[in-house]
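Format notes (please read before filing issues)

Several people have asked whether sequences and structure tokens are stored in separate files. They are not. Every record keeps both together, in the order shown below: the sequence lines, then the token lines. Line labels are part of the format and must not be stripped during preprocessing.
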Amino acid sequence: MEPIPLLTPYKMGQFDLAHRIVLAPLTRQRSYGNVPQPHAALYYSQRASTGGLLITEATGVSDTAQGYPDTPGIWTAEHPGGKAPVSSTETRLGPQTSFDGHLDEYSPPRRLTVEEIPGIVDDFRKAARNAIDAGFDGVEIHGANGYLIEQFLKDGTNDRDDEYGGSLENRCRFALEIVDAVVKEVGSHRVGIRLSPFTDISDCYDSDPHSLALHMSTKLNDHDILYLHMIEPRMAIVDGRRVVPKRLLPYRKAFKGTFIAAGGYDREEGGKAVTEGYTDLVAFGRLFLANPDLPKRFEVGAELNKYDRMTFYI
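Then the structure lines:
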């Protein structure tokens, strides 16, 4: 019996993957004092499989980079403090409804000055080196989900009038400077990036997400990075069923490395995406959270546990 498409092998640069099921980065607020705890090893080992790719939860590159309490950091102990949170803008983010229904309030951001930006870029470089020195195979630069890099990328949040704002090229400058610095530090064969051009998390939106995605997908080729990990637009309801929009094909074609698609996939939709050449790998979040043995369950066609939104971040 032939394996399902998601369980076929794939060579990603120097990494020989046994299957195409990827653990998406999932924020877990369990790193007290920004230090990963012993239970983190259990959490990831439960989701490990021979030849599988796991992307860890988002990890702060400095003490000004903490979007949530009790998330891990990988900056050095002597890293200087700053005035958090920093941003591309001074526009305040309004209250946001959390996963459990309560409203989160955020302090006003502080716009980074042009003179400060090289220091932030260097934070990413040092954090990448720390990750490799700690034994990780590579690093994924988080340019998605409303965090700092995406605040520069999108015109809904980037209201700067200097060389980091205004035109599409200027808004992408910060992200590409980080990519360049990280690649020079640890090697392009160890670097990926995650983008979410179509999302509007925390008021972070763009008036032309297609042009943004296409520009970044194309420019990333100049740095020869290992992979591009991109999040689909929100799922649509077709004939009463949730369907993945599959609007990422232009960016998959533009980018020359490995492409990872994420956003609402299940066993069937993920398999189709691989078979059709729409993507190389498929990242799973909620399903992997509730089913640590997800590759095995996909293999045997086992029933999946239902995920519980109330436990997503704890």
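For reference, the curators noted about this record: The chain has nine helices and 15 strands. The first strand starts at residue 10 and ends at 12.
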